[in-house]
Amino acid sequence: MVSGGLLLAGFHVTRAVAGSMKAAQAEAPAKEQAPAPKAADAPAADAAAQPQTAPGSETAADPHADGERIAPEDMVVRRVLPIDEPIKFGHWYWDERGAPATGTMIITIDLKAQVLSVWRNGYEIGTTAVLYGADEKPTPVGTFPILEKDIDHVSGTYNSAPMPYSLRLTQDWVAIHGSDIIAGYATHGCIGVPEDFAAKLFGAVEVGDFVVITDGKTLSTD
């Protein structure tokens, strides 16, 4: 877990971000402001081209290999997607217009709001509502590097349940993966996202990229 904090709130992400992700000193130029994206429930709804990935557990190339990763506590938030309504379960948004083509990727997950956001160099490029672990098997909070990518993983514990586009975060296979997203459902500790969104995310991030999971509070080791 890193020192500092990351505060997420509401049905999306708050523009008042403190601690581990510092707000930009000035607003981004108008040309960098993306139009309000439409909710997506299929890949065809996304207008931005995505990095191509090879089948299996590793991608063919690093889409942000132009420099070292920025630690979550040093990330500057430059733009959030202009979404003006609650994100419905099963819906997702992905819009890379105005964002850098490469750069540090960070995923943030607010369990209280049940929202996941994807950031590239401080620009939010994707977001969705999520499912998370029930009381018997809660989703851990903290900062985790992606340990492994597996495009067609199946659970070794829960009746070989499919876990497509898995991004493994812990040794006991807590992962972000594609799932049926239904309000009121829960997971066995994993983060469930719509499968089409999971495919986008799988192609955009690499092993070693950070995932910051909070319960609506600021992370801190103090």
Automatic annotation (TrEMBL):
<dbReference type="InterPro" id="IPR005490">
    <property type="entry name" value="LD_TPept_cat_dom"/>
</dbReference>
<feature type="domain" description="L,D-TPase catalytic">
    <location>
        <begin position="105"/>
        <end position="214"/>
    </location>
</feature>
<dbReference type="GO" id="GO:0018104">
    <property type="term" value="P:peptidoglycan-protein cross-linking"/>
</dbReference>
<keyword id="KW-0133">Cell shape</keyword>
<feature type="region of interest" description="Disordered">
    <location>
        <begin position="28"/>
        <end position="73"/>
    </location>
</feature>
<feature type="compositionally biased region" description="Basic and acidic residues">
    <location>
        <begin position="61"/>
        <end position="73"/>
    </location>
</feature>
<dbReference type="GO" id="GO:0071555">
    <property type="term" value="P:cell wall organization"/>
</dbReference>
<dbReference type="GO" id="GO:0008360">
    <property type="term" value="P:regulation of cell shape"/>
</dbReference>
<feature type="active site" description="Proton donor/acceptor">
    <location>
        <position position="177"/>
    </location>
</feature>
<comment type="similarity">
    <text>Belongs to the YkuD family.</text>
</comment>
<keyword id="KW-0808">Transferase</keyword>
<feature type="active site" description="Nucleophile">
    <location>
        <position position="190"/>
    </location>
</feature>
<keyword id="KW-0573">Peptidoglycan synthesis</keyword>
<protein>
    <submittedName>
        <fullName>L,D-transpeptidase family protein</fullName>
    </submittedName>
</protein>
<dbReference type="GO" id="GO:0016740">
    <property type="term" value="F:transferase activity"/>
</dbReference>
<feature type="compositionally biased region" description="Low complexity">
    <location>
        <begin position="28"/>
        <end position="55"/>
    </location>
</feature>
<comment type="pathway">
    <text>Cell wall biogenesis; peptidoglycan biosynthesis.</text>
</comment>
<dbReference type="InterPro" id="IPR038063">
    <property type="entry name" value="Transpep_catalytic_dom"/>
</dbReference>
<dbReference type="Pfam" id="PF03734">
    <property type="entry name" value="YkuD"/>
</dbReference>
<dbReference type="InterPro" id="IPR050979">
    <property type="entry name" value="LD-transpeptidase"/>
</dbReference>
<dbReference type="GO" id="GO:0005576">
    <property type="term" value="C:extracellular region"/>
</dbReference>
<dbReference type="GO" id="GO:0071972">
    <property type="term" value="F:peptidoglycan L,D-transpeptidase activity"/>
</dbReference>
<keyword id="KW-0961">Cell wall biogenesis/degradation</keyword>
